[in-house]
Amino acid sequence: MNRLMSKANLARFILGGVYIVASIINFSFAINNSQIYRDWAGSALLSYYENLMLSLSNEQLVMVLLTVVIFQLTMGLLILSKGNLVKIGLVMAILFHLIITPWGYWSLPNLLLALVPIYLIRKDFDSSFLSILFSKIR
After folding, report:
1. What is the three-class DSSP state of 83?
2. CA distances from 106 to 38, 39, 72, 88 (A)
3. Is 121 exposed, middle or buried (0-12, 13-18, 19+ CB in 10 A)?
4. Structural domain harbouring 41
């Protein structure tokens, strides 16, 4: 496997893609069915998270969800970029996984997912996803 398509780059592309897809899914839920997040409040591991979700008005909940959407989209795009921007995206991803883990037992795998950006942050990425993709197409 050449340097441009290393395991680290492949993991980075998958991770960035997952965040972009997640932002699209969360956008859809925010616009069409934000109540589902309130329904999950009872599974929160910390009472603070449950109380927060239940105390938000519908409009506030949608705004919080849209903020998460923007954050996820930004993480994904940064991780797919190059240089220090990738590292910023990876730090955001680590923090994101740690912050959302207490939302519920269903989010415990986020602790494992945080290991991917922790591993990747030690690598240097001097090419973006698009530049690698276009180099393969030529």
Report:
1. coil
2. 14, 13, 18, 27
3. middle
4. 3-137
Instruction: Mean pLDDT check: name the lowest of 11-15, 78-82, 127-131.
Output: 127-131
Is 6 in a helix, a strand, or coil? coil
Measured between alpha carbons, how far is residue 74 from residues 102, 128, 138 in Å? 22, 15, 28
Q: Judge whether 100 and 107 are in contact, CB under 8 Å.
A: yes
Q: pLDDT, tens digit, for every residue of 41-54?
A: 888 888 888 898 88
- Count of the separate structural domains present in the chain: 1
CB 50 within 8 A of CB 42: yes
CA–CA separation, 65 and 138 (whole Å): 40
